[in-house]
Structures are given as structure tokens and as C-alpha cells.
């Protein structure tokens, strides 16, 4: 599937409600599946990734009904999960793969996990290694690093694990296994990654302890079903925050966006670059901070992005690169090696696709350097099957001279099924 994006002439103006947060939607289904009782979810993201999570847990014997952004999960506790007769297919979703492995590690049965061609390249030993150390039996290609993976769970013991990478998926996978392991399980990370698991486990009645960069749970804990209201996804809002900042004569209101501080690096960067961005009606839902965001066009300055902020904006870097092409001077992104193991190697794909539009951008070992401002030119680009690359290129298309054709734009449905409709609504 291809999508042609034309230059926007009269600005992007209006109000949109971005779809539900992908990280929170996955967790609401998974935690509902292992909880005792019926969990109801509203504001769920019906994107392909979260639908893969529903499909996997249905195959694990959990009754789940989904209709649009409403989901009902009939949890029967940890022991409600049963040995699947079918292979668990995670599609394109790294979150489904890694968090589900943590849950399966303590279940006394065998499962096989596969995904698409992108998942088949993503490193899984970052979770399979510690889960093996806890006692799970896991095998797969390259000694259990790559899918297809087979896992036989069972008796597991707590672990005191120090992760080399700041990864919410690693942290969550080990903590989920820890909930049904003997003793205490702790995970320490080099920088704080998104903390939705910690917040939502607490909402489901779990005792979670944090001390600095270490999170711990005791084994033998049960979850109690909840009503979860999922806020809008700031990673989806990011495309419109950037569009509002760079498309001349724009003013966009983004309602009900999650502003958990572990996710708001994009807001800090926009403010540092001089964007007109306001947070309104700040409030809290299910332990997650939420606000309405208002962005309008402004002059922008390049900046340096590195260190602690990287995990707080890792998924926004493709669209931040587009933003930087319109800022005065150099933008340097460092410490972002993790981009290499996402749906694509996002250092390579961002640089190659933006170059096709005439951007001054160079890859580095751990990030990229962008010089602006540059008038982008229309061309044909490719998402490479990566939703965030597809959307970033579509936003670039809103300011390029001439049309930008985004090839493989079907990948966008992973996290933002009505993305193009929302762009058109703002014209
Ligand atoms: O689920 P998946 O495929 O890994 O999705 C991505 C994305 O761009 O949507 C990453 F490719 O988001 C991850 C994110 O990068 C979702 C996530 C989570 O929900 O826990 C955490 C981050 O990954 P990690 O490896 O840093 O934990």
C-alpha cells in the first residue's frame, strides 16, 4: 500500500484525539488476563500490535471481547492460562513478545512464539537470558536470541538483575516473571525507562517497590481485575506536535494525551527548540498523568539530545529528525544505539529516507546529525515496514515541495490506524 502526501498550504488547524497509548493498551490486556475477575478497558488502541496481544492471550485460554476501543478481559488468575494448541503469533510487536515471555516463564506448560520478518531480527536474549537464569527453559534460533522461540515455564526463583540497556520491555518481562517466582525479583536499569508496568501493576493491587533505578517485586502476588481508561498515546501525538510546529500557519489541539514523565522527552525537546507548546487541563487517570496539548507554528533552533532523555523520547526520534530539518543550525542526537534494534534500524532508515527528500542528515554510531533549515523536496520514500518511519515521512510530506509518496504505508496500522484521516481532518 502506498500513500501520496501533498504539501499543506493553509496550515493544519483543529482538534484531534490521538488513539490510545500502545504501551498501556498491551499491559491492560495482559494484566487483565492474569488477574482474578473481569477487567474492562476503554480507550484501547485497536492497532495491529495490540490486536496481536489479544490474539495471543485468547490462544492461552483467556476470554477476551474487543469492540473498537472497548475491551473486556475475563481473567481467571495466573492458573487461568492454559497450554496453547496453536503457535502464539506476535506479528510486528516487540512489546507483546518480551512481556508475554515474562508471563510464560512461570507457567507450567510449553508454548511457541513467532512473529513477522522484523520481529525475527530483533534481539530477544535481553529477556530470554535472565528468564533462563530464573529457571525457565527457552530455546530458539541463535541460542534463544531470535524467534521462533519455544518456552517451557515452571518453577522460577527471584533474580537481582542489572540491565545494560534502559528498556521497559526488559524490566517488565523480568518483573512479571518475578510476581510468580520464589523470593524477591529486582531490576536495575542505567536510565529510567517508561514506568507503565510499575504504575499499572500497582493499580491491579500489586506491591511494587522502587529505590532509585531499581524496582522490586515479591513472588506469590495475585492481581485483582480493574477498569482501565487508556490515555492518548504521546508517541502518536508526537507526529502532530511536529506537524503543528513546522507547517506554516498551524494550530493543533491534541486532547487527552498521556504525559507520564518517562514519555515526555518530545515535549522537552520542542520547548528547548522554541516551539509554541502549551499543556492544558493537566489531570490523572488510573495513576497516569494526562493533559491536552496545544501547538502552533514557530521559529525553531537546533539542539543536542543525549543521555537520560533518550529513553524518554526513543520512539519519537524519527519525527524529531524531521523537526530538526526545519530548525536553524545543527541538531545532534547521541546515545541512541537502541534505535538499531527497533522495527527497523531506525538510524539507517531515518537517514536514508530523509536524504531522499533532500535533508542534510548524517548517521553516527549512536545517533544522527541534522542541519537545518532545508526546503525538503518531494520524492518516493519507503516505511520499510516500520510504522514510525512511515508516519515521520508523511509529516515531512506536509512541508515538501512536490508530493511525497510513502511506500509500504500499511505498516502505520500497527499503532495509528486512522493517521491519514487525522491529517486530512486538520487541512
Ligand atoms: O513493541 P515494539 O515493537 O517494541 O514498539 C516500539 C514502537 O516504536 O512502537 C519500539 F519499536 O515501542 C517500544 C519502546 O521503544 C514499546 C515499549 C513498551 O511498551 O514497553 C518500550 C520501548 O522499547 P524498549 O525496548 O526500550 O523497552
Overview of this structure, please?
30% of the residues lie in helices and 30% in strands. Strand 6, helix 3 and strand 7 form a beta-alpha-beta unit. It is globular, with a radius of gyration of 21 Å. The longest helix is centred in the first third of the chain and has 13 residues. 53% of the residues are buried. It has 427 residues and is an alpha/beta fold. It has 13 helices and 24 strands. It folds into 2 domains: 213 residues, UDP-n-acetylglucosamine1-carboxyvinyl-transferase, Chain (Alpha-beta prism), CATH 3.65.10.10; 185 residues, Alpha-beta prism (UDP-n-acetylglucosamine1-carboxyvinyl-transferase, Chain), CATH 3.65.10. The strands form 6 sheets. Strands 3, 4, 5, 14 and 15 form a 5-stranded mixed sheet that branches. Strands 2-16-18-17 form a 4-stranded mixed sheet. The protein has a 4-stranded mixed sheet with strand order 6-7-9-8.
Provide the β-strand percentage band: 25-35%
Under the CATH scheme, which architecture of the largest domain would be assigned? Alpha-beta prism
Tally of separate helices: 13
The Rg value, from CA coordinates, equals: 21 Å
Determine the CATH topology of the largest domain.
Answer: UDP-n-acetylglucosamine1-carboxyvinyl-transferase, Chain
* Distance N to C terminus: 23 Å
Helix content: 25-40%
Largest sheet: 5 strands, mixed
Q: Helix- and strand-based class?
A: alpha/beta
- Global outline: globular
Count of β-strands: 24
Average pLDDT number: 98
CATH superfamily of the largest domain: Enolpyruvate transferase domain
CATH class division of the largest domain: Alpha Beta
**Unreliable stretches:** none
Total number of distinct structural domains: 2
What ligands are attached or bound here? Answer: ligand SPQ
Amino acid at each position: 500500500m502506498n500513500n501520496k502526501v501533498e504539501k499543506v498550504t493553509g496550515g493544519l488547524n483543529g482538534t484531534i484525539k490521538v488513539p490510545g497509548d500502545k504501551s498501556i493498551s498491551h499491559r491492560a490486556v495482559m494484566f487483565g488476563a492474569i488477574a482474578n475477575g473481569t477487567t474492562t478497558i476503554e480507550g484501547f488502541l485497536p492497532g495491529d500490535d495490540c490486536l496481536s496481544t489479544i490474539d495471543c492471550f485468547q490462544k492461552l485460554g483467556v476470554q477476551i471481547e474487543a469492540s473498537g476501543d472497548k475491551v473486556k478481559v475475563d481473567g481467571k488468575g495466573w492458573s487461568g492460562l492454559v497450554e496453547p494448541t496453536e503457535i502464539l503469533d506476535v506479528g510486528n510487536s516487540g512489546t507483546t513478545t518480551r512481556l508475554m515471555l515474562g508471563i510464560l516463564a512461570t507457567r507450567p506448560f510449553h508454548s511457541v512464539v513467532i512473529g513477522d520478518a522484523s520481529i525475527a531480527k530483533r534481539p530477544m536474549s535481553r529477556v530470554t537470558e535472565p528468564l533462563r537464569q530464573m529457571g525457565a527453559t527457552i530455546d530458539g534460533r541463535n541460542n534463544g536470541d531470535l524467534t521462533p522461540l519455544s518456552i517451557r515455564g515452571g518453577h522460577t526463583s527471584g533474580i537481582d538483575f542489572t540491565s545494560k540497556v534502559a528498556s521497559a520491555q526488559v524490566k517488565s518481562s523480568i518483573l512479571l516473571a518475578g510476581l510468580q517466582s520464589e523470593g524477591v525479583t529486582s531490576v536495575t536499569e542505567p536510565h529510567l525507562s517508561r514506568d507503565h508496568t510499575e504504575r499499572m501493576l500497582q493499580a491491579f493491587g500489586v506491591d511494587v517497590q522502587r529505590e532509585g533505578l531499581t524496582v522490586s517485586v515479591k513472588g506469590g502476588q495475585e492481581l485483582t481485575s480493574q477498569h482501565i481508561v487508556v490515555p492518548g498515546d504521546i508517541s502518536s501525538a508526537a507526529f502532530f506536535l511536529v506537524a503543528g510546529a513546522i507547517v506554516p500557519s498551524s494550530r493543533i489541539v491534541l486532547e487527552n494525551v498521556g504525559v507520564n514523565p518517562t514519555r515526555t522527552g518530545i515535549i522537552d525537546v520542542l520547548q528547548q527548540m522554541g516551539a509554541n507548546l502549551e499543556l492544558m487541563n493537566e489531570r490523572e487517570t488510573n495513576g497516569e498523568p494526562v493533559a491536552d496539548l496545544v501547538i502552533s507554528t514557530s521559529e525553531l533552533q537546533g539542539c543536542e539530545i543525549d543521555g537520560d532523555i533518550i529513553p524518554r523520547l526513543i520512539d519519537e526520534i524519527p519525527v524529531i529528525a524531521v523537526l530538526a530539518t526545519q530548525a536553524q543550525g545543527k541538531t545532534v542526537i547521541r546515545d541512541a544505539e537502541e534505535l538499531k534494534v527497533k522495527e527497523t534500524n531506525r538510524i539507517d532508515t531515518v537517514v536514508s529516507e530523509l536524504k531522499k527528500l533532500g535533508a542534510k542528515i548524517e548517521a553516527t554510531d549512536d545517533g544522527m546529525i541534522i542541519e537545518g533549515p532545508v526546503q525538503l523536496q518531494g520524492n518516493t520514500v519507503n516505511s520499510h515496514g516500520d510504522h514510525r518511519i512511515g508516519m515521520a515521512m508523511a509529516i515531512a510530506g506536509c512541508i515538501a515541495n512536490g508530493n511525497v509518496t510513502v511506500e509500504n504505508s500499511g505498516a502505520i496500522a500497527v499503532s495509528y490506524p486512522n493517521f491519514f484521516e487525522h491529517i486530512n481532518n486538520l487541512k
